[in-house]
Design a protein that fits this description.
With 477 residues, the chain is of the alpha+beta class. The protein has helices at 3-60, 73-83, 104-107, 115-123, 166-215, 232-291, 299-330, 342-352, 373-390, 444-454; strands at residues 88-90, 96-99, 128-135, 138-148, 154-162, 338-341, 358-362, 368-371, 399-405, 409-416, 458-464, 468-476. It has 3 domains: 3-171, Beta-Lactamase; 232-330; 338-476, Heat Shock Protein 90 (2-Layer Sandwich), CATH 3.30.565. It starts with a helix and ends with a strand.
Length: 477
């Protein structure tokens, strides 16, 4: 189930459950209050009836003279009219003294109470029994209670049926519940509509994120998500997704660079192999031919032959150098880290290019780190050579090499006042086969970066167009 459907169903169940609870509690409260009201009303009427009966009994002294009760039947009938009630009176033995209404079980018992029931009722301290009766006209509450005279003597049993208007009460309850049903049905319909739009609104942001994640890919141009008025949780999720997109693009870029470098390395191996194989025999053949040509007719022809052979040998050497460069780029020798004075190693390279206005600054006379000396000389040679070639002929070269020792790293900065790196080329200068020089092969900076990486270091640069470039190397101590 989708989150949207879960929210929708949860809201509907919540409203439906609340509706049932309210209906149930309303029904229970209504019935409880109705029962309490009728119980109180029944007890009040029964007490009024007892007082009226006791008044007549005491007035005519009938408590122990059952034979005189027939003569005062009209007085007892008047009570039914005055209080609008029905009742019956029995002796303590269960025989009828007066009755205006009797239940069927009493009528079937010759209008008398069962003796066991009458004895049980008289013998109890409370002297009262309440029952619920059912007739063809409905159900009613009936009470059997013992009557006492002024001195507390038990002289009769009162049967009092309380006919509450159950049909009216139930009808009223049904009307009330029917109204509630209609109200809650409307509320449920409204809740369904609201739940639909609320669930759609709540999950709209998540649906946007889901679609974006589904469209994301390593080889695609992925778009970030920007949401307005997002909740804290959604905003955190969006930020995580955007960060993932940034990381994915970085990974794709690094992967592409790695694949390009591997492709160039494989190609460089093949090129170096294919070129170098015939070059040595060609050089030896030309040299042998030059030496053993046997030309004696004239010095002019011999000089021409020598010039031709020298040109061939020079071109063969050039091709050999190209093959060597490709071979070096493809298979750099394994780094051999030894404790080396980086200042001394750098000085040797600077001295080679001394005529080019190169200065060297160091924070200490000697700085020892784990270093492959031969590879470091190659790094500095490439960087300084690139700096020299970047300076135009009409500008006085100013190249500075600065070595600074920190707590955990040694930083080397090579600065020049050349033409700098254009904005279009700033992401490409470390890629193999990229060069802006007509006679370059574009492998120098690629080899430099490979060597720095093998030393667990970092290389970066800053460039100002037509003002110069600073290459910064950071090596761990």
């Amino acid at each position: 189930m989708s989150l949207r459907l879960r929210i929708f169903i949860s809201m509907i169940l919540l409203v439906f459950t609340a509706t049932l609870l309210v209906l149930g509690s309303t029904y229970y409260q209504y019935r409880t209050e109705s029962d309490q009201y009728n119980s109180y009303r029944q007890e009040r009427k029964e007490n009024q009836l007892k007082r009226q009966i006791n008044y007549i009994v005491n007035k005519y002294d009938l408590s122990d003279r059952y034979d005189l009760w027939d003569g005062y039947e009209k007085d007892f009938e008047e009570i039914t009219k005055i209080h609008s009630v029905e009742y019956s009176i029995f002796t303590t033995g269960g025989r009828p003294l007066f009755y205006s209404y009797l239940p069927l079980d009493v009528i079937s018992n010759n209008y008398s109470l069962e003796e066991e029931f009458a004895d049980m009722l008289v013998s109890t301290d409370e002297g009262k029994f309440t029952s619920e009766n059912f007739t063809d006209v409905g159900k009613f509450q009936a009470s059997y209670s013992v009557l006492k005279n002024d001195v507390g003597e038990k002289y009769a049993i009162l049967f009092f049926p309380y006919f509450q208007d159950v049909s009216f009460a139930e009808s009223e309850l049904n009307v009330f519940l029917s109204t509630l049903y209609q109200i809650y049905f409307i509320m449920l319909v409204v809740a369904i509509v609201l739940a639909y739009f609320i669930s759609r609104y709540v999950t709209r942001s998540i649906e946007t994120i889901r679609l974006k994640i589904g469209q994301a890919g390593l080889l695609k141009k992925n778009e970030k998500i920007y949401l307005s008025n997002a909740t804290k949780e959604i905003d955190s999720l969006v930020n995580s997704y955007n960060k993932m997109i940034d990381d994915l693009e970085d990974s794709a870029e690094r992967l592409a660079k790695t694949e390009r470098e591997q492709a160039w390395q494989e190609m460089a191996k093949q090129v170096a192999h294919e070129i170098k194989n015939p070059l040595t025999p060609m050089r030896l053949t030309v040299q042998s031919f030059q030496k053993n040509s046997g030309l004696k007719k004239g010095e002019d022809q011999k000089d021409k032959l020598n010039d031709f052979c020298d040109t061939l040998i020079e071109q063969i050497d050039t091709m050999s150098n190209v093959a060597t460069s490709f071979s070096d780029f493809a298979t750099l020798p394994k780094t051999q880290l030894e404790k080396t004075d980086i200042v001394e190693a750098t000085k040797k390279v600077v001295e080679i290019f001394e005529q080019n206005n190169i200065s060297l600054e160091t924070s200490s006379e000697n700085i020892f780190i784990k270093l492959d000396k031969e590879q470091w000389i190659r790094v500095m040679t490439n960087l300084i050579k690139n700096s020299i070639q970047a300076i135009p002929h009409d500008r006085e070269p100013v190249i500075n090499v600065k070595i600074t020792e920190g707590l955990k790293t040694v930083k080397v900065i090579v600065s020049d006042n050349g033409l700098g790196v254009s904005k279009n080329n700033r992401d490409k200068i470390f890629e193999p086969k990229f060069t802006t020089k007509s006679d370059g092969m574009g492998l120098g900076l690629g080899i430099v970066r490979s060597i720095i990486n093998s030393h667990r270091g970092k290389i970066s640069y800053k460039s100002k167009n037509r003002k110069g470039t600073d290459f910064k190397i950071s090596l761990p101590k």
